[in-house]
Amino acid sequence: MESLNQVLLHKNSRVGPDMNAWLAHNGGDGLEIALLEPSTIIEIIKKAGLRGLGGSGFPTHQKWTMLAKQTQSKEKYLICNANEDEPGTFKDGILLEETPHQLIEGAMIAALATGVNRIVFYINPDLEDAIINVQRAVKQWEESELYFKVSDYIKQPLTFSVLPTSGHYIGGEETAAIETVENKFPFPRRKPPFPAEKGVNGCPTLINNIETLCNVPHILKNGAQWYQNLGLCDACGTKIYSLSGDVLSPGAYELPMGTSLSELINTYGGGMLLNKKFKAVFTGGPSNTLLTPKDLDVPLDFDSVAARRSSLGTGAMIVISEGTGIVKRVAEYVNFFAHSSCGQCPPCKTGSYYIAMLLNKIDTGQGRRTDLDALINLCEILPGSGRCALINGAVKVLESSLYHFMGEYEQSLKD
Ligand SMILES: Cc1cc2nc3c(=O)[nH]c(=O)nc-3n(C[C@H](O)[C@H](O)[C@H](O)COP(=O)(O)O)c2cc1C
Ligand code: SF4
Q1: Which residue, judged by its Cα, is nearest atom 23 of ligand 1?
Q2: Which of 236, 232, 282 is nearest to 260 (CA)?
Q3: Amino acid 328: pLDDT
């Protein structure tokens, strides 16, 4: 059994693309167990409390159930989402490079549970080593006895494809991923219909982040209760936190879900760089509400972070220290979102560019009170105006920085 606080990044999992090494470390056991009674898999995932680790925290069993119910279609797709382009998030690349087999096994268990017959590994093109490793690993699975057992159960050959994404941040949004798999530009689609009803080529499609899927073989192997117990308090399992910014030891840390922000920064991150004072953290990537010193005690799990009106998101924590200008940092992130907007929804395209322009103006000392007022107004008008959540993310980080650091904005004004 794995150590308490490391499952996905445990040294036994880090066997690279060699399938024999994976099997020698009890890899494949989760899938063997799943094959004994495929109809119970979703119930086990539900009991374990697994939630989507790609940002939303949506209960995994609910998505899987929706897909399993789609019995009319001959084809069903699973997109294993490793677009990973949000600033500060760097966990999926590590998982793919070092432990591709646990992802493939998790994806095959998802296929058994839901009747998926086409699995797409959807990977950021900058993760070149990851793409090579997954390609190698997939070839070995295609010749394995376990592969034929799964194909027999779903009554058709399971197909794998490894698809480098378009390299756009927006391509990580689930319906944009579907467009990319269909060889189109990643324009997010209007919902409904939801991907579980109508996804790739009109077929039911499941989209999961790869960290979510990497947990699955371990849950099947060790049981739902084991997974639940890995988390602290009411949280289940583990989370890989991508810790970066002004800490001594930045890195990807797999820890019990619910580890406190202070413990992540001080115990694992080695504390603040140059002993500076902690100022804030951009949580879950920069598309969320900031956490500040009064939140250092917050347990980093979906519900506890939401109770502080923020979001765990991808688990990225970008730490900043006293002395870091908040206007400049927020301007950088909003510029990123403006640049990433796909342009389909005019309020998102023009709104994100406009707030980026106002922020740049204030940051360079050219802003006036009316510019600040315009920013505040846009925070009320823009949320919900787009087809996807990109514009909401850009506004959330701006709004939160205005709430916590209005003084800095005011000091930067020309008048
Ligand atoms: C702008 C935008 C970018 C996203 N990028 C990613 C991404 O790179 N990887 C990812 O897994 N999910 C990303 N998501 C979330 C996906 O839409 C989807 O919720 C997720 O892949 C579902 O997997 P999960 O349920 O396992 O978390 C993004 C969402 C938005 C709005
Ligand atoms: S909200 Fe923005 S990124 Fe999302 S679909 Fe509309 S224009 Fe594209």
Answers
A1: 208
A2: 232
A3: 97
